[in-house]
Amino acid sequence: MYPNLSKAPPTAPTLAELYTPKLLTVLREGYDLARLRRDAVAGLTVAIVALPLSMAIAIASGATPAQGLVTAIIGGFLVSALGGSRYQIGGPAGAFIVLVAATVAQHGMDGLILATFLSGLMLAAAGALRLGTFVKFIPFPVTVGFTAGIAVIIFASQIKPLLGLTLAGAEPGPLAEKLPVLWAALPTVTPAAVAVSAGTVAVILGLKAARPHWPGMLVAVALAAAAAGGLGLPVATIGSQFGGIPNTLPMPHLPALTLARVVEVLPAALSFTLLGAIESLLSAVVADGMTGRRHRSNCELVAQGVANVGSALFGGFCVTGTIARTATNVRAGAHGPVAGMLHALFLLLFMLLAAPLAAYIPLAALAGVLAVVAWNMIEKPAIATLLRAGWGDAVVLGATFLLTVFRDLTEAIVVGFALGSVLFIHRMSRATAVETNSPFVAEDRADSPRGGEAPAQDPGVVVYRISGVFFFGAAASIGSVLDRISTDHRALVVDFAACPFLDSTGANTIEGLAHKAARQGVRLYVTGAAPDIRRVLLTHGVRPPQVIYLPAVADALEAEHTA
């Protein structure tokens, strides 16, 4: 019997299984007042965390704090209502600060909104085409590297408000150009801003250690606003910089859609799409690990796409799944997506009722919040583990990190993925081996349909056992071994019993071997080939009578013995 022939083929998931929002799943399971209470508590907890973060991320991105809140309200509601994860919290994310700020600087605010709109369409299309399964193939060193790089850039972008610096001109975007300008502006340090930012960081870290369940960021920002207003500190605030925030949502409207403008912002939209897909699905995976649930990746991408379109219609910017807020949602005891929807409604309530209070928040306090966020983004234990794991992972990590900091995020991900793929191919090729004329073991004899013992090894018969994946990375080394047949041999046996996969390059190697064997009058036996492997070989012309297919090595030896 051929290996794996008795296994039933896996059934393909239905459209309902792929795209039904988790909200419908939770409601079908039964939703009562107790579950609503759990979701309300979790939603309020997440809203308290998201309130200062949404405004801080927006300001650091070159947008207004009101746009940050709009993004969290509209995007957060749609991600939870339509998404494929029970616990995902959507909104503006620190990982996008670099890309959003660069887009605003290059294309203006209307270009950012258009790029967000186009990114939403691309994300929805990616989900509809079922590409969500492939996003998770990004190597771990790449995600760690670009996350650490983004953290460095975020912190560098906050040095000016942290220190209250006054710059002669516009602040450069690239880090290599930014640092000399900031260094030259050090004599303009504002002691009050330094005190506010340092106090904000101290309160956040102190509460995290002493009262971990308290909303440290919100408390720190509220205390900073009270101190700045009560003491009359000479620091920039949301009110002085942006005139406060409105207490209503803007009316939805389509961004200006012209072909020239679309082509202009398309690279930014592609970057938003790539990072948004990676960040949101990574966040969903983290939630799965914390809860034991499973998200629907393609449904999640469709929801992220709709959320970005919705955010752009209301003047917001990029929406994605946020790992920290999603983890907070899980720890707060959320039951399902209603918690994320309520988190958006609580933020809307703040915007409607308490918008004037936001005018007193110092920018230095929000910079302190982002400094803590940047530090937490760097996965210190993961970096240490990857550096110890070997030179290959360290190179991928380092290249991704450096390209993120000094070049471009999209370029960093592409190069990191390419390096990770080459590293994987190298490792897989070393794991594939071929054994020649190894002594037969009991398992080989048991495979014979006639039973009994296999004949003694004939020196005129060469047996090769291929173990591991026979693919293009290993084809050269295996081909050089298989090619060592001569006219002194009567038969050649190639055993695939320990080979789980064969690609076209490997099949082409066997096809060349079959031609050489035929020219030299050597009979070629292929044994132990699973149906998939045999199908690939037949497709590439490895067919009888040039090749004889048998279930096991023992069968080939017996056939040659009796020939």
UniProtKB/TrEMBL annotation:
Database matches in SUPFAM superfamilies: SpoIIaa-like (SSF52091)
Entry's transmembrane regions: 40-60, 66-82, 112-131, 138-159, 179-205, 217-245, 265-289, 301-324, 344-374, 386-406, 412-429
Name of this protein: SulP family inorganic anion transporter
Domain of life according to the entry: Bacteria
Keyword S-adenosyl-L-methionine part of the UniProt annotation: no
InterPro entries assigned to the protein according to its UniProt record, in alphabetical order: SLC26A/SulP_dom (IPR011547), SLC26A/SulP_fam (IPR001902), STAS_dom (IPR002645), STAS_dom_sf (IPR036513)
Predominant localisation class: membrane
Bilayer topology: Multi-pass membrane protein
Keywords: Membrane, Transmembrane, Transmembrane helix
CDD domains: STAS_SulP_like_sulfate_transporter
Domain STAS: 459-560
Subcellular location: Membrane
